[in-house]
Amino acid sequence: MENFYLSAISPVDGRYHKTTSVLKNIFSEYAFLKLKVKIEIRWLQKLSKVSGIFELQKFDDFTNDALNNIIKNFNYNDAKEIKQIEHIIHHDTKAIEYFLKKKISKLIPKKKSMINFIHFSCTSDDINNLAYASMMKSTIFTVLLPYWEKIILVIKNMAIKFKNISMVSRTHGQPATPTTLGKEMSNFYSRLILQSVNLKNTKIFGKINGATGNYNAHVVSYPDIDWEKVSESFVNDLGFTWNSCTTQIEPHDYISEILSCIIRFNTILINLNQDIWGYITLHYFNQKCSTNEVGSSTMPHKINPIHFEKSEGNLGLSNSIMNHMILKLPISRWQRDLSDSTVLRNLGVTISYSIIAYDSILFGLNKIQVNTINIEKDLKDQWQLLAEPIQMVMRRFGINDAYEKLKQLTQNKNIDANQLHKYIDSLNIPSYEKNKLKKLTPINYIGNAVEIVNKICN
Predict the structure, then answer these.
(1) Facing residues of 285 across strands?
(2) How far apart are CA 446 and CA 456, in angstroms?
(3) 50, 152, 236, 316: most buried by Cβ count inside 10 Å?
(4) What is the CA 3 to chain-centroid distance, rounded?
(5) Nearest residue to 282 (alpha-carbon basis) of 176, 190, 167
(6) How many CA atoms lie within 13 A of 147 on its CB side?
(7) How much is the pLDDT for 300?
(8) Is the pTM of this model over 0.70?
(9) How far apart are CA 249 and CA 124, in angstroms?
(10) How far is residue 431's CA from residue 428's CA, in Å, rounded to a whole number?
């Protein structure tokens, strides 16, 4: 089995197979087939409860147990049998129908007539769209949100822990008004929380309404049944929101919406990866390493920020594929074409790249340590940063051209505390204001940074 990972073409199933294995039970061909078998059986069971279908009486406990066991005991041999049928007939969903007819005939021979109602009035996407809805729901609540919550918690803890560590902020890469390391982490925390809430609240849609979404075959077969009510009830019972108006396919708009939310979350993480990478470069963070770890093949001194680079690269791959899906999936020629089908089969691939990235950033964030000495050293001699508050107080007390005067004093110059205090003493402002300004330092000029962290993180 290990040789498979070494010979895999995609790193998703090769190099990173341990990280992405969590997705196999959701997106693999085996998982897809199992879901479609489940939905076919649930639809058959639903039909048995519909009054008006006299040819299919309500199933007894024995019949329901037998059908439920087909789902429960579905295995790789079953999946292989379906694929063998597909190889002959060249249709994946019809292969499942034939498989179930054979399986049910053996398990419940006394009710052989019920096999005529397998896949009754369905088109392939009636089954497929609900399988993908199941995949998306499982992905969101068993994979994505747990990963997101771990990342968000780490960043939240960093925000709280580092809220009092003053640092130079950089706008356009240049020293700017001081901030705190914790406040910068809280910026990411608040953005990521919003996307997490959005993802939780996204509705997952499903449909089961026939070949062109009009219940044509349903109405001809049983005209007195309220098929829209049956359809809505079935979709709702599966845990999804009913889409009442579609073509042959559920239009995938909700999948685009989910992917858009994931992209936003990922893009925020790309931003975080790049910022952390920069802070490591500035030696604001040191990286912990084990004695056995090698940073470079030729330079023994190096510890490279590879986990943030790996995360950034895989987030970019994931976003690129998802961007194509967002643009492609809502489009289908006339009532149906298959170009969406081959794209949907890559949902597991694009989610895999995100999972690889999340794993990397979590590892990287747990590997860094704050270098308070370097952070303070970089900040404490930046007295020119106090040009901002001084000129604002000057404006308050009616001193004209305050900005221009402070620009002349500080632009492209490194001034010290004595020079700045001497300038403050020369100003025509109240003495209490002078004293207040002279108490400011590059380290304590942080505004409400700490208070903002406390509010955001609580």
Answers:
(1) 370
(2) 16
(3) 152
(4) 31
(5) 167
(6) 26
(7) 72
(8) yes
(9) 9
(10) 9
- Report the domain count for the chain: 3
Beta-bridge mates of residue 286 = 369
Domain for residue 167, yes or no?
A: no
- Which DSSP string corresponds to 202-235? ---EE----TTSS-HHHHHH-TTS-HHHHHHHHH
C-beta neighbour count of 42 within 10 angstroms: 17
- Report the C-alpha gap between 320 and 267 in whole angstroms: 11
Closest CA to 202 of 153, 151, 253: 253
Q: Are residues 76 and 224 in the same domain?
A: no
User: Using CA atoms, how far apart are residues 69 and 301, in angstroms rounded to an integer?
Assistant: 60
Is 9 found in the same domain as 116? yes
In the structure, what pLDDT confidence band is assigned to residue 295 with cuts at 50, 70 and 90? Answer: low
Q: Coil, strand, or helix at residue 166? A: strand
Q: Which domain holds residue 86?
A: 2-120
State the alpha helices, DSSP H only, in 162-281. Answer: 181-201, 216-221, 227-237, 253-281
Which residue type occupies 93? T
Sign of CA dihedral 117, 123, 124, 128: negative
What does the alpha-carbon distance between residue 340 and residue 354 come to, in Å, rounded to a whole number?
21
> Tokens for 202?
């996204």
For the domain that residue 6 is a member of, what is the CATH number?
1.10.275.10
In this prediction, residue 381 carries a pLDDT of: 87
Q: Are residues 326 and 199 in the same domain?
A: yes
Q: Do 194 and 336 lie in a common domain?
A: yes
Q: How far apart are CA 242 and CA 207, in angstroms?
A: 6
| pLDDT, tens digit (0-9, with 9 covering 90-100), for 216-251 | 999 999 999 999 999 999 999 999 999 999 999 999
The answer as to whether 455 is a domain residue is no
Query: DSSP readout, 315-365?
Result: HHHHHHHHHHHHHHTT--STT--THHHHHHTTHHHHHHHHHHHHHHHHHHH
Q: Are 415 and 384 in contact (CB under 8 A)?
A: yes
Catalytic residues, by residue number, are 172, 296
Average pLDDT value for residue range 270-296: 88
- Which residues, 6+ apart, have CB-to-CB distance to 168 below 8 Å? 175, 176, 178, 378, 379, 382, 385, 442
Q: How far is CA 271 from CA 153, 309, 316, in A?
A: 17, 11, 11
